[in-house]
Specification:
By secondary structure, the chain is mainly β. Helices cover about 10% and strands about 35% of the residues. The protein has four helices and 19 strands.
Length: about 300
């Protein structure tokens, strides 16, 4: 096969020999003895009450900085997801302060930020929320509400409280006129992957609300664990090595919900993935970057307290 970097994008994508997608999609995790199937669309649980040992037990967590660990999973799914790597970050808000950041060239929230713009003291940076010309939906920074909430049944708010704790709140809660009380930073995203205590929204099984349950893409998700820590997961295509990692190939929305549930998330939401998904981790002084193809309007960084 010719080198991907030497081909125009459309030709390069057409050159990839991807397996045909299965009607009965499944996910397998790389185990010492081979691939171990742990999820099937036809038998998808309606709730994840705890982490799945076959998945969570495959992550070798490494300490990157006080309060921050990172690890990886190798998954195999249908079609273009036949080789998928999931980059994971797990952080403790008691030791790391999360902050929303925008491009440094003014007050305008526009598509000019990338993880390369993260401040030098940030140990983690990731793009936050969803975007149109600027950030979509609710936006609070430094206690000031800059945008009113957007509308959508699966569009929760991600709140960083003035005590540092991170929470995902249901869309209906954003109608409360007191929604900014005790909020330092907040943004909104969609769709919600897990609600309540690991419950999968019914729309992720029925496709109601305009959700495309079959579309595959690179994915980025944020979730809260039952112990109060925050989980970030970014998928990368793993069929062409590092050169093809940023290709927008990957999991469906229901599959990403399964990944977050299997890793022990209590609540979770998708962030803007595809060619926008990007992540930076400063690992014991070494900067690890999983880049996207374009800049975005808003970033989320973690800084030591």
């Amino acid at each position: 096969m010719p080198r991907l970097a030497a081909l125009p994008l459309g030709v390069a994508l057409a050159a990839l020999p991807l397996p045909a997608a299965s009607r009965d999609a499944a996910l397998a995790v790389r185990a010492p003895h081979g691939w171990e199937t742990w999820w099937r669309a036809s038998e998808a649980p309606a709730r994840w009450p705890a982490a799945h040992p076959a998945v969570a037990g495959r992550v070798r967590w490494r300490v990157a900085a006080p309060g921050l660990e990172w690890g990886e999973l190798r998954l195999s799914g249908a079609g273009e997801a036949y080789r998928t790597r999931v980059v994971l970050a797990r952080l403790d808000p008691a030791r790391l302060a999360l902050r929303l950041v925008k491009p440094a060239d003014g007050d305008v929230f526009a598509g000019r930020w990338s993880v390369d713009d993260a401040p030098a003291d940030a140990v983690l940076a990731v793009n936050a929320g969803q975007f149109t010309a600027g950030p979509w939906g609710w936006l609070v920074q430094d206690g000031v509400e800059r945008q009113a909430p957007g509308r959508g049944p699966l569009a929760p708010g991600v709140i960083i409280g003035d005590d540092g704790r991170v929470s995902l709140v249901a869309p209906a809660a954003l109608d409360d006129p007191r929604r900014t009380e005790r909020v330092r930073d907040a943004f909104q995203s969609y769709p919600m992957l897990l609600m309540g205590d690991g419950e999968v929204p019914a729309a992720l099984a029925t496709g109601t609300g305009g959700l495309d349950l079959a579309h595959r893409d690179a994915r980025l998700a944020l979730g809260t664990l039952r112990d109060g820590r925050v989980l970030v997961a970014l998928t990368r295509f793993d069929g062409l090595g590092d050169a093809g990692g940023s290709l927008p190939f990957g999991l469906t929305t229901p599959e990403m919900a399964a990944v977050m549930g299997a890793l022990g998330a209590q609540r979770a939401v998708l962030l803007d993935g595809g060619i926008s998904g990007q992540l930076l981790i400063r690992d014991q002084g070494r900067t690890r970057t999983w880049a996207g193809w374009r800049k975005v309007a808003l970033g989320l960084v973690a800084i030591p307290r």
